[in-house]
Amino acid sequence: MRAWITHLLVLLVLSCAIFLMSFVHDRGQHVPVSEQDWPVWGGAPDNSHYSSLAQINRRNVKQLEVAWTFDTGEKGGLQTNPLIVGRTLYGISPTQKIFALNAATGERLWSFDSGIKGMQPDRGLAYWSDSREKRILVGVMNFLYALDATTGTPIPSFGNNGRIDLQENLGREPRWQSIALTSPGVVYQDVIIVGGRNPETLPAPPGDVRAFDVRTGKLRWSFHTIPHPGEFGYDTWPKDAWKTSGAANNWAGMALDTKRGIVYVPTGSAAFDFYGGDRIGDDLFANCLIALNAETGQRIWHFQAVRHDLWDRDFPSAPVLLSVKHDGKSIDAVAQTSKQGFVFLFDRLTGQPLFPIEYRKYPPSTLPGEQTAPEQGLPTKPAPYARQSIDETQLMNRTPEAHRWALEHFRNMRHEGQFVPFSVGKETFVFPGFDGGAEWGGPAVDPETGIIYVNSNEMAWTAALFEDTGEHGARAVYLSQCAVCHGNTMAGSPPEIPGLIAIGDRLSPADITLTIKTGKGRMPAFPNLYEDQLNGLVNFLLTGENKELSSSEPRPAGMKYRLTGYRRFLVPEGYPPIAPPWGTLNAIDLNTGEYKWKINLGEYPALASQGFKNTGSENYGGPIVTAGGLLFIGATNFDRKFRAFDKDTGELLWEATLPFAGNATPATYAVNGRQYVVIAAGGGKDPKFGSGGVYVAFALPNEAAASHN
Q1: pTM score, two decimals?
Q2: C-alpha span between 394 and 11 (Å, rounded)
């Protein structure tokens, strides 16, 4: 009898242990909390996109329902990762109005309208507080505002009546500088550190990284990404390039090690993106990951991913800080994703690569005046999360007509892989395309496992150069400022880069003028144009007349060659002509560099209805990962889905259809013991569907949430 009782007790103990292990596994070893914020863009200063919340988990995620929605009433799309602090959600509308909501109900608490109709992407906000006050620091076009977090009113003592103009303090005439704060700054102690979006053509301002006092708005320090005389890296540019070259800017955001006071800053390419005859050299600190002292702006270390970039291979997202096990040791690391489809992993303190980077030679440029870098480096591990090349066997066979079209056009292009310089008169196949691999949404990292989750595009683009003959007049303004995106034929690459042919049928002269002055979507502002240049350009767009202009400046030095325009490689129906996948979601163990899983992400509803399902699609906006065992992501352009996957296996556990595509990184938080997941849904990238500005929050039913506390 005693033996039987003992055996029963052992079984009970084992059953309890198994239940507790399952409970802890789903809850990620975290006790539920009644309140938890999402107080920083990306969730935390390390930009991990991670939450320890586990009320919503693998077992109950199918019960998720809409808890509330907030419709801004605007069109134009959204890319905002909102903040949630102390039961208040802070967000941005498509025209850059700032608002605060009750995070449990979606009820508006306040809104702020600067009077500026912002038409650039605005991906997030920053929050700062001390014992006396709380501030929201947010970009509206070229201004950085400081708002009272309780009321939404500007702080009069900050800058000029609550704002500072980012066109100033760049060492050049402020009114001619084009800069917009599309990604939020990071707050360290009493400073906010910002970058900015610059044009990809000259003239463009330098991409200085700057820190401003959060109380007064005064400039505390600047790091020159185009070095001045006497600064490290000055000899990697032509003499005095800092006076005329532009960009090499941080547009993608940053990550912060708060304990050590180090900010990690990825940068983009220097202007002009595709021909560098005026900037011969490696061009530090373009295309770099830079570790800076957050208090002083002093460089600690840097890594340059692309030397003398001619392919627009910016670092496209903020890096992520994590700890990994490497060679038997725990190492504090920083991971950086790339457009080419690679993850670079470094020791956070020294910049030492944790996986080898292999340098090899690539073809030289054939253009007069251009000198490509002799070597470029790519990591040997992890393997790329995007294919690096395509051959004829990987063209789409959906229909015979589409296949013939793809084959004919593919055979007329150069397709030699990475780092092949563009040529005049012959299209080059660009893969992964100009929009990734990885993009601005950024990856998520599970700090408990060291696994990074990256959504990726596998879209092909094409490009070629044409020789600028040095003509003058309105057409010369178009070719120097507009053709890089809209093309020398004005055909564009719809829907993101619209064609300009017959633009007068869609827009008035006043609308065109406003768009050129302020920018819109991917298009930066062009404040550098003289009045007769602007008027001549508008007239050229409407009539094709190449009017002579009295104040036309000489074309920028070295700009003898220009891009024919960004062109997606799409069949006439609008679908990719390469075989799927067209978009993926990847889980990579950064301790080993090995993949845990890889799945296709998204699909085209019209193709899915014909049986072509699970193709993957273009996707913008990143994932978040939780201790509940889940990965949440919207991102997909065409199916408007918001999905939850098992973070261990990649199994789809839940999905919902949003009012517009969720091209933004979601956030998760808890109020009154209930966990919410919220995403900004704005769409705008699908030509067959409209755009808007709706925030949608999901949660478990109240009774289910209560039972899991």
Answers
A1: 0.91
A2: 56
